[in-house]
TrEMBL record:
Pfam families: Thymidylate_kin (PF02223). InterPro entries: P-loop_NTPase, Thymidylate_kin-like_dom, Thymidylate_kin_CS, Thymidylate_kinase. It catalyses: dTMP + ATP = dTDP + ADP. Transmembrane segments: none annotated. Belongs to the thymidylate kinase family. The lineage of its organism: Bacteria, Pseudomonadati, Pseudomonadota, Betaproteobacteria, Burkholderiales. This is Thymidylate kinase. The gene is tmk. ATP binds at residues 10-17. PROSITE patterns: THYMIDYLATE_KINASE (PS01331).
Length: 205
């Protein structure tokens, strides 16, 4: 039995965490065993790499390579075994974030990102991705005062504009996998969008 792999994307401040918790409850109510995880991170090694990426100065290519190193360990140690055991894996960020942040935001070329994704993932990718889309200025207002910004969250607004464009490009390339959610609405209205997608993709058996 193969489990489900669902990822959640969007710029910082889009409200992913609130919705992921509700989605986990939705699947558990159906009897699924749910694994909640995140990127960067998800395993002891990847969490150490996360701390470096979010706090230590580095150039864009170093950042990209650390992201994919953590992703490889995350896949090998957690995601792939969980899927093989028939579990539902809900991952806060995955490879789309690398294309959006290091590709769109940092300006690294697709010719560098695409081979890395192929090597590291070796065919494992989400079957469904929720993209919580939000104007960067609104996201910045939501983040303000919520917590101290990490190295990536502290980037200027134009960085997040480019990252948003990166997510839009990924959605255009994979319309069957990536579903855009209007994250500018209230949490309840956002959940209504999400629940409609879940009900369509995973009808009750």
């Amino acid at each position: 039995m193969t489990g489900r792999f669902i990822s959640f994307e969007g710029i910082d401040g889009a409200g992913k965490s609130t919705q992921i918790a509700s989605i986990a409850s939705w699947f558990r109510a159906r009897g699924d065993e749910v694994v909640l995880t995140r990127e960067p991170g998800g395993t002891p090694l990847a969490e150490q790499l996360r701390a470096l990426v979010l706090n230590q100065p580095m150039d864009a290519l170093t950042e990209l390579l650390l992201m994919f190193a953590g992703r490889r360990d995350h896949l090998q140690a957690l995601i792939q075994p969980a899927l093989a055991a028939g579990k539902t894996v809900l991952c806060d960020r995955f490879t789309d974030s690398s294309f959006a942040y290091q590709g769109g935001g940092r300006g690294l070329p697709l010719s560098m990102l695409e081979p890395l994704a192929d090597w590291v993932q070796a065919g494992t990718e989400p079957e469904l991705t929720f993209w919580f889309d939000l104007p960067p200025a609104v996201a910045a207002a939501r983040r303000a005062g919520a917590r101290e910004a990490d190295r990536i969250e502290a980037q200027q607004l134009d960085f997040f504009e480019r990252a948003r464009g990166g997510f839009a490009a990924r959605a255009a390339q994979a319309p069957q996998r990536v579903v855009r959610i209007d994250a500018s609405l209230s949490p309840d209205a956002v959940w209504q969008q999400v629940e409609a997608v879940l009900a369509q993709r995973y009808p009750a058996c």
